[in-house]
Design brief:
Shape: globular
CATH class: Alpha Beta
Number of helices: 10
Number of strands: 8
Bound molecules: glyceraldehyde-3-phosphate
Distance between the termini: 9 Å
CATH architecture: Alpha-Beta Barrel
Largest sheet: 8 strands, parallel, barrel
CATH superfamily: Aldolase class I
Strand order of the largest sheet: 1-2-3-4-5-6-7-8
Structural class: alpha/beta
Strand content: 5-15%
Radius of gyration: 17 Å
Helix content: 25-40%
Number of domains: 1
């Protein structure tokens, strides 16, 4: 982590939670007091109102896990960036591998979603990452570069306003974490690619995601180009999420 970039830790609740369960989690996060790192939670759409209300006077930000490319209209089931902005969302995750895999989201669609979010003042957290087969075939660099390139092209002069999350697909929810060296190597590649597109690349936040836990967060976040994490499972336990936030400071 660079001394010039402020760390960011984002919890991706995925499709978990209920009013009652969220209430306990949010209360525990709030009662922890000031956090040494910027933190946010990205929650299922139905709970945006709940987090907007419960986190209103807290430094913890919130956001969603997906956004439509469309502004409005006959798009059943879709949620626009303007709607997310209505709830005070600061972030939205786009291009998570689970959406790329289960909803066939293309690089172009992901890029358009990032653009739609930025147009409404919401920071897109753009996920990139290779599958195990791609890593074993030596394709990691080509895959993440291709995924990021589409977003760079779509965002043009706004490139520096996104957050990028490197999430090796084989590390998500598996307990297999990329080694700090593996993660740093990809982050360095991504930052170099961003530097070719934006003079502000050195200020951009690049997060690592994939089985980040309290016991491995510090060493991952200590890498030169890793500025925090996108946390799945561990973000559902207040104690673990808070420990990961503290490891980012
Ligand atoms: O968005 C978060 C990632 O998919 C990581 O999930 P995980 O921490 O459960 O491996």
């Amino acid at each position: 982590m660079s001394e010039t970039r402020q760390p960011l830790v984002v919890g991706n609740w995925k499709m978990h939670g209920s009013h009652a369960v969220n209430e306990q989690l949010l209360e525990a996060l709030k009662s922890a007091g000031p956090l040494p790192a910027e933190a946010a939670v990205c929650v299922p759409f139905p709970y945006l109102a709940q987090v907007a209300e419960r986190l209103a006077r807290s430094p913890i930000g919130w956001g969603a896990q997906d956004v439509s490319v469309h502004a409005q209209g006959a798009y059943t089931g879709e949620v626009s960036a303007a709607m997310l902005a209505d709830f005070g969302s600061r972030y939205v995750i786009v291009g998570h591998s689970e959406r790329r895999q289960y909803h066939a989201e293309s690089d172009t669609l992901v890029a358009d979603k990032a653009k739609a979010a930025l147009a409404k003042g919401i920071t897109p957290i753009v996920c990139v990452g290779e599958t195990l087969a791609q890593r074993e075939a030596g394709e990691t660099e080509a895959v993440v570069k291709r995924q990021l390139s589409a977003v760079i092209h779509a965002l043009a002069h706004c490139v520096s306003e996104m957050v990028v999350a490197y999430e090796p697909v084989w590390a998500i929810g598996t307990g297999l974490t990329a080694t700090p060296e593996q993660a740093q190597a990809v982050h360095a590649l991504l930052r170099a690619q961003l530097a070719a597109a934006s003079p502000r690349a050195a200020q951009m936040k690049l997060l690592y995601g994939g089985s980040v836990k309290p016991d491995n967060a510090k060493i991952l976040f200590a890498q030169a180009d890793i500025d925090g994490g996108l946390i799945g499972g561990a973000s559902l336990k207040a104690e673990d999420f808070l420990a990961i936030c503290r490891a980012a400071a």
